[in-house]
From TrEMBL:
<dbReference type="GO" id="GO:0006506">
    <property type="term" value="P:GPI anchor biosynthetic process"/>
</dbReference>
<feature type="transmembrane region" description="Helical">
    <location>
        <begin position="6"/>
        <end position="24"/>
    </location>
</feature>
<dbReference type="InterPro" id="IPR044843">
    <property type="entry name" value="Trans_IPPS_bact-type"/>
</dbReference>
<keyword id="KW-0337">GPI-anchor biosynthesis</keyword>
<keyword id="KW-0808">Transferase</keyword>
<dbReference type="GO" id="GO:0045436">
    <property type="term" value="F:lycopene beta cyclase activity"/>
</dbReference>
<comment type="similarity">
    <text>In the C-terminal section; belongs to the phytoene/squalene synthase family.</text>
</comment>
<keyword id="KW-0413">Isomerase</keyword>
<feature type="transmembrane region" description="Helical">
    <location>
        <begin position="734"/>
        <end position="753"/>
    </location>
</feature>
<dbReference type="GO" id="GO:0004311">
    <property type="term" value="F:geranylgeranyl diphosphate synthase activity"/>
</dbReference>
<dbReference type="InterPro" id="IPR019845">
    <property type="entry name" value="Squalene/phytoene_synthase_CS"/>
</dbReference>
<keyword id="KW-1133">Transmembrane helix</keyword>
<keyword id="KW-0812">Transmembrane</keyword>
<dbReference type="GO" id="GO:0016872">
    <property type="term" value="F:intramolecular lyase activity"/>
</dbReference>
<comment type="pathway">
    <text>Carotenoid biosynthesis; beta-carotene biosynthesis.</text>
</comment>
<feature type="transmembrane region" description="Helical">
    <location>
        <begin position="80"/>
        <end position="97"/>
    </location>
</feature>
<dbReference type="Pfam" id="PF06432">
    <property type="entry name" value="GPI2"/>
</dbReference>
Length: 759
């Protein structure tokens, strides 16, 4: 028996697991847990027979002095744990590296000229893996130095062949950070760990079954191959899982209303779906949406990576529509063209929400009225999950922008608020609608409406930050969103801002606008905690990433890029990670007292009533402590059991007399209150009266005495029996049993019943 192998885990495998868990914890979802658990089970179940065979045939072995002892089919438990920890670590690294990637855009339709190319790619991989299986089988049949290598190949390559055949598109198309990096990093690390373990003799490979070739001093080529192959299996398994999820959530025409935790059978159906059935228009819409988001909003692109897959797709499509609509209006050559675009957009939305317009007619209208590069954004709008009202208000916001051609539009704070509600509050409202669509809640319709209203206010706050950031950029296109009243109070004119948007006087107005933004933010951010749990963290990231721009603007000197204040990428990442780590219902320290004062469930307590409520708890805990002291004293022979029982009985009797006297005083007080006699029955018959031989007080005393005598006699009668039964029981068992019984007594005692409390 030894701990060398266990120490390998303590030193080299468990610390990375803890680190990766800590890093990925903010992003962890039920679906991620499902994927990891599924792959861990597959890894353990598929590796145990193979590993057991290698040990029984002497391919490798574990000296008895390096393992704790317990085995499963001749496999040390430390080795079984290795199957788990390697799969867990590599899976978490894969999840961490692939989180920013929106994987559905890497799906491809095999049609036309690309069909033959994809078939050739698939076939080449299959032939290569089949060749490895055949070569490995030959090495095993021949025996000798190639046995271990052959066993690795004939065990791993069939799984790789299956995974390649199902997910070769993903494996080829995804960036190397999603495929090669999560394989190579853990492989290199485990090569180092294996080198140290082989040098210490933690596990030993039989000399006649290996090639005696080393990658470096101490690392056998077979061990290097083993860790590379196993990590490839884990990553390919994750890729196949994600490929299935991408198909499942991207094409509602193929899989209507998919589960957020799909069964393995559904996942296999998705993987086996021919790519020719994929919706090319939807793939194009998603691809263009991702590109637009990368170009136009780095903050929201970063935040989008934190949203669960299906919700993320709909949010991207919603953003793409809003961005395209805004660009059509802003990039118009004149006001008439802009109004024409708004009219076409309004017509499009009318067709979308009309039961009388066929999809083909709507598609034809989009193709006729809109440029080719914008059509997918309109056609892929998830309108079925959105109400028409916020989309109409968004168009009204665009119309307000057009009014700038006729002169200043924002005259008062109310005008600024109305504009912000239409162009930003509506977008926030639609995001919340999508959240409730994907993650239905049990809350009432009224509460959902209050959350949507709070989302609208948060959108206004974010728009205020946007306006504060873009004062200079907006001035170049002839727009000033600062209210005229603010300008007048600061001694400025509208034209002054257009001509000199960087003048010092505007900084005070920028600060005022940011103050209003953060005031709205503080009053509405609590609504985030009432959203479904799956969306709370991502929404926090989306909000905080944008509000961080406001915090940068509050600084005296901020970095300008393309006329706008920017937040460094590392700072945005840290904000996102920190925000996701916040617990649910988080309240920051600066507003804690305000939230406490607004707590509707807060009730004041009087000191003596609180003391009375706590008496039963203190009394019971004191009784337990006294019992423990007596028990320990008896065990160590410092106190006689007879003395303990005698004094306890005497104190109990005295306490009962005091309690009886106290209760007697209360009975007298109650008896002194006159009672209204009950009316006699009209029949005139005599009503039998209860026997007056014993008063209620006497009956209570008699019942108490009977109970006390019964319990006392039972304990005295059972004590010799219990003593003889426990004579052969070891002291540690008695201590353990006593501890558990006391813990159960303390935990399950009825503390809520006051003087009537009982176990």
């Amino acid at each position: 028996m030894g701990f060398d192998y266990a120490l390998v885990h303590l030193k080299y495998t468990i610390p990375p697991a803890v680190l990766l868990t800590w890093l990925y914890r903010p992003f962890y979802t039920k679906l991620d847990a499902y994927k990891v658990v599924f792959l861990v089970l597959v890894a353990i179940l598929s590796t145990i027979p193979w590993d057991s065979y290698l040990i029984r045939t002497g391919i490798w072995s574990y000296p008895g002095h390096v393992i704790v002892g317990p085995k499963l089919y001749d496999i040390p438990l430390e080795e079984v744990f290795f199957f788990f920890i390697q799969t867990y670590n590599t899976s978490l690294l894969y999840l961490l590296l692939t989180r920013p990637t929106f994987q559905p855009v890497y799906l491809r339709i095999e049609s036309g000229p690309s069909r033959n190319s994809w078939r050739a790619t698939k076939l080449a991989g299959q032939v290569f893996l089949l060749g490895l299986i055949a070569w490995g089988w030959r090495r095993v049949q021949e025996g000798g130095e190639g046995t271990y290598t052959g066993l690795i190949l004939i065990w791993a390559c069939p799984f790789l062949l299956l995974l390649w055949s199902l997910a070769y598109q993903f494996i080829v198309m995804l960036p190397l950070t999603n495929t090669a990096l999560p394989i190579l990093l853990p492989t290199l690390y485990l090569w180092i760990v294996d080198t140290l373990a082989l040098r210490r003799g933690t596990w030993v490979i039989s000399v006649g079954t290996k090639y005696a070739v080393h990658v470096w001093d101490g690392l056998e080529i077979e061990e290097a191959l083993f860790f590379f192959v196993t990590n490839t299996l884990i990553v390919f398994g994750q890729l196949a899982f994600d490929n299935a999820l991408a198909v499942l959530y991207t094409f509602p025409g193929l899989f209507a209303d998919p589960s957020l935790l799909p069964s393995p059978a559904v996942l296999m159906r998705a993987l086996l779906t021919p790519s020719s059935k994929y919706d090319a228009a939807r793939l194009q819409g998603l691809d263009e949406a991702v590109l637009r988001l990368k170009r136009k909003s780095r903050s929201f692109y970063l935040a989008s990576a934190t949203f669960p897959g299906p919700l993320r797709a709909d949010l991207l499509l919603l953003y793409s529509f809003c961005r395209v609509a805004d660009d059509l209006v802003d990039n118009a050559s004149d006001a008439d063209e802009a109004k024409a675009w708004i009219a076409k957009l309004r017509k499009f939305l009318s067709n979308v929400y009309s039961d009388k317009v066929a999809p083909s007619t709507m598609h034809a209208q989009v193709c006729e009225d809109f440029p080719l590069g914008t059509q997918s954004a309109l056609l892929q709008l998830p309108a079925a999950k959105l109400s028409p009202q916020p989309l109409e208000e968004l168009l009204q916001g665009f119309e307000m922008d057009l009014a700038f051609d006729q002169g200043p539009l924002i005259k008062t704070t109310e005008d600024l608020r109305l504009y912000s509600e239409r162009v930003a509050g509506t977008v926030a409202q639609m995001c919340i609608e999508l959240i409730f669509c994907w993650y239905p809640s049990t809350m009432s319709a009224e509460e959902q409406r209050s959350i949507v209203a709070a989302g609208n206010n948060m959108g206004v706050a974010l728009q205020y930050v946007n306006i504060a950031r873009d004062i200079g950029v907006d001035a170049k296109i002839g727009r000033v969103y600062l209210p005229l009243k603010w300008l007048s109070d600061a001694g400025l004119r509208y034209d002054d801002v257009l001509q000199r948007p960087s003048q010092a006087k505007l900084e005070s107005l920028r600060k005022q606008l940011l103050h209003d933004a953060f005031s709205l933010y503080e009053t509405t951010k609590d609504a985030i905690e009432r959203l479904p749990a799956e969306a709370r963290g991502p929404i926090r990231v989306a909000v905080e990433s944008y509000m961080e721009i406001g915090r940068v603007l509050r600084q005296d000197k901020f970095k300008i890029k393309a006329g706008r204040a920017t937040v460094p990428k590392l700072r945005r990442i840290m904000v996102a990670w920190t925000t996701l780590n916040l617990p649910d219902n988080y309240t920051d320290e600066t507003t804690f007292l305000d939230h406490l004062q607004r707590n509707p469930r807060l009730q004041p307590y009087e000191f003596w009533s609180l003391m009375a409520d706590a008496t039963v708890i203190v009394q019971h805990l004191a009784s337990v402590i006294i019992f423990c002291c007596c028990f320990i004293a008896i065990i160590h022979g410092r106190v006689s059991p007879v003395a303990v029982v005698g004094w306890a009985s005497l104190c109990t009797v005295l306490a009962w007399f005091l309690w009886d006297h106290w209760m007697g005083q209360e009975f007298k007080a109650v008896a002194s209150v006159p009672l209204t006699p009950a009316p006699e029955p009209e029949t005139g018959e005599a009503v039998p009266r209860a026997s007056q031989s014993l008063s209620p007080r006497a009956k209570q005393r008699l019942a108490t005495a009977k109970s006390a005598v019964l319990i006392y006699a039972a304990l005295l009668g059972l004590s010799p029996i219990l003593k003889s039964l426990t004579r052969s029981t070891t002291s540690d068992s008695i201590w353990a049993l006593s501890t558990w019984l006391l813990m159960m007594n303390v935990a399950f005692f009825d503390y809520t019943a006051g003087t009537d409390a009982h176990l």
